[in-house]
Structure formats: structure tokens, C-alpha cells
Amino acid sequence: MSTKCFKVAAFYAFAELTSLEKLQIVFTKFLQEEEIKGTVLIAQEGVNGTVAGSEKGIDNFKTFLQSQGLYAPQNYKISFCDDDPFPRLKVKLKNEIVSIGNSLADPSKIVGEYVEPEDWNHLISQEDVLVLDTRNTYEVSIGTFEKSIQPKTTNFREFPEWLEDLESSGIDKNKKVAMFCTGGIRCEKASSLMKAKGFKNIYHLHGGILNYMEKIDEEDSMWQGECFVFDDRVALNHKLEVGSYDMCHGCRMPITELDKLEPEYVRGVSCPKCFNHKTPAQKKRYADRQKQVDLAKLRNEKHIGAIYQPNKK
Fold first, then answer.
1. What is the pLDDT along the chain (313 residues), one digit of tens a residue?
2. Is the N or the C terminus of the chain less surrounded, counting Cβ atoms within 10 Å?
3. How far does CA 9 lie from the centroid of its chain?
């Protein structure tokens, strides 16, 4: 039994789903009964989400996913934290569970070759392998694998455009490409698109960075830095514990303690990354929100007002 207060489950499963509105109700009812918070996305292609609750509640959720035929062991990752990383529960219907915006990407028909964490170091150490980080720039900024490249995307929907540029550059489509992302789901879509476009040797890290951190000892790891996660924990270290980064609540980007020493940092309002991009009206709104957060904390409550969140898709 973990000494941490909250158990966190990050999960996804591709499956052909129907009656989405009914499934939304079923998920919502179960999660509310178990007092589980977080975000669940449901689409015709499957489910994707991260939720947190008591250890018993999350264990029951795993059983629930199994009963719905939506549990994939390799795509179900557990971690723990002291504080609830989510302010509320959201169960949303979407067109895609991870948005790439290109119909050629269909993991139910074709994907790259899965590589287990135990074999990943050997693959990316080969000179003829292009190591591709499919995540966004703010995620890459706090951690990635050695010698990886990144498409400089701020949103996963920009990946198809980057891929078109890569094709235009005349890249050999027989070249080995080893890609990775946080939990594996973006690689499912990215590898599917690349395979559909004729790339022959596409590999992706099974279960993503989180699975690698769980399976590979830190002393043997080729991962550098921390792994960004899309909740109040901000980032996880190699032990899958809450890392060293905080979050700017003006732009939801990761920030360091050094960032907080800069004059552009105003708690709950701005940081050096976003100070010059926020209007006076936005700064006032964020300052008012921070005041409400502080007041809620004094009442031993958690303020759950909506704020901007980066799009991990």
C-alpha cells in the first residue's frame, strides 16, 4: 500500500465505440460514485484520460474499464501523489481521443512496430535511427531522450504539416524512425499516419515515457530531465514522483524556481514566458482568480474556476 494519498491512472484504449452519449453517462456515474476526478475523452475510436482518486477507487476503475472492454494493460499507467491533481471531473465526447486532424491516421488499421522499454536503449543507440519526440515544445523543454529531434509543434494537430515538410525534404522513407510520447497514444496516431504515407520502418516506445520510467532503472536510463504531465503535478521524475517544476497559471507552462525570481513572474498571473503576451485585462482576470484561490485555501477548500490549459493533443 502506498503512503501517498492519491492514486493516479493514465489510460487509453482504441476500440470501435457506439452509443457515446450513453457511455458518457455510464463513465460519469461510476467516477462520481467512486469520488474520482480527472478528464476522460470518449470518441468513436476509443477512450483516453487521466484520473485520480483513492487507491480503492482507482482499483475499482480498472475493473470498470475491464468490464467495458476498454482496459489495455500496456496503456494503463499508475502513479501516486500527496495532493489531488485534479480540481474536477470532466467526461467529454470528442471526434478523436487524441486529435491529429488527418483521416489517414487510423491505429485500428495500421501502426508502427511496438518496442518494449527493455529494448528501447538499444534501438535509439543505433546510428541509422532517427529518434523522434512527438510531443509539444513546452513538454520537450523539461526532458527528452538523448539525440532526439522534435517537430517544434505547440499542438499535436501540427504534426501532419511537419510530416509534409519532412517528405518534401526528400527523406528516405526506408529510414528507421523511433518515436515516443508521454503514454504512447500520440505515437499510435503519428506512426499510423507515417505508415499510411509510405514510411516503412516506424517504431514506437510501447507505453511511452511513463512505461519506460517504470520499467528501466534510473542508472540505466537514457532519459534526460523530467516528464511533463497534464495535471497539477506538472512533471514527474524518473521515480514517477512529482518533479521539480511548478506551473504558471497564466499560460499553464512549466516554470522553475529561477523563473519565479524574474520580475515578469507574478504568482497566478504571468511568468517570463507569457508576460509580454498577456493583455492588461487578462492579467487582471488572472489576478482576481488568484485572489479567489487564496481565499479558498484559507477556507481549506480548493478553487475550481476554469483557466486556460495547453492542448496536449
1. 445 689 999 999 999 999 999 999 999 999 999 999 999 999 999 999 999 999 999 999 999 999 999 999 989 999 999 988 998 999 999 999 999 999 999 998 999 999 999 999 999 999 999 999 999 999 999 999 989 999 999 999 999 999 999 999 999 999 999 999 999 999 999 999 999 999 999 999 999 999 999 999 999 999 999 999 988 899 999 999 999 999 998 888 899 999 999 999 999 999 999 999 999 999 999 999 888 877 877 776 665 554 334 444 4
2. N
3. 12
Q: Tell me the fold of 6-93.
A: Alpha-Beta Plaits (3.30.70)
Q: Enumerate the CATH 3.30.70.100 domain ranges in the chain, comma separated.
A: 6-93
Catalytic: which of 5, 81, 181, 271? Answer: 181
5 has catalytic annotation: no
Q: Which residues are registered as beta bridge partners of 234?
A: none
Q: 113-225 sits in which CATH class?
A: alpha beta
* pTM for this prediction: 0.85
Residues of the chain with CATH 3.40.250.10: 113-225
